[in-house]
């Protein structure tokens, strides 16, 4: 009986060690994401952003200034969502590879455009030059509910081949709007 108690404890210890290992890996991944930029680089980016968009002298004197800015940004976002019909529901980013010349990150996006759902997965190669950062999409995978429409399948395949996100979102917005009109029209006649 004493052996079975020891075995149960051994099993529990092994299970806890595996859990600790998984948590350590997750922690390491999150540290890798957050330590991509040094504190100095982050502060320089913030200052550069403020100079570029708000001018040298403009600062925030109170939380109400920040609240007003946040409300303005929310209004702009709401307008863009109404204008394009695109609403993102989730986004995740993970660093796949980091070298001296650049960084490869894997992005996953999902959302809806009018009544059509879509999911994107792409890898983005970011290369740092002296004065700028250039990005290239190295891999693109699109999953979209297209029903029986072969034209959508062809479009998705072509977009994946050319790795053009801008073309995808422009075309998706237009197609989804007309898809919604057709759906409502057919419902009206049923």
Automatic annotation (TrEMBL):
Cited PANTHER family: CENTROMERE PROTEIN P
InterPro entries: CENP-P (IPR027801)
UniProt keyword annotations, A-Z: Coiled coil
GO CC terms in record: chromosome, centromeric region; nucleus
Coiled coil spans: 6-33
Keyword Chaperone included in the entry's annotation: no
Protein name: Centromere protein P
Organism: Opisthocomus hoazin
Annotated GO biological process: CENP-A containing chromatin assembly
């Amino acid at each position: 009986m004493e052996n079975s108690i020891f075995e149960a404890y051994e099993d529990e210890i092994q299970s806890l060690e595996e859990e600790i290992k998984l948590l350590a890996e997750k922690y390491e991944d999150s540290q890798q994401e957050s330590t991509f930029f040094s504190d100095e680089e982050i502060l320089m980016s913030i200052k550069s952003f403020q100079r570029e968009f708000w001018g040298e002298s403009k600062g925030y004197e109170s939380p109400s200034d920040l609240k007003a800015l946040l409300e303005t940004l929310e209004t702009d976002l709401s307008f863009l969502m109404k204008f394009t019909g695109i609403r993102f529901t989730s986004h995740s980013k993970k660093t796949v590879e980091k070298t001296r010349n650049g960084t490869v990150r894997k992005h996953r996006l999902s959302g809806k455009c009018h009544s059509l759902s879509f999911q994107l997965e792409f890898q983005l190669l970011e290369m740092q030059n002296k004065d700028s950062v250039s990005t290239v999409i190295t891999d693109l995978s699109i999953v979209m509910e297209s029903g029986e429409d072969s034209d959508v399948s062809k479009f998705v395949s072509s977009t994946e081949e050319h790795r053009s996100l801008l073309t995808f979102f422009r075309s998706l917005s237009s197609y989804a709007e007309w898809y919604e009109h057709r759906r409502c029209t057919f419902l009206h006649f049923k």
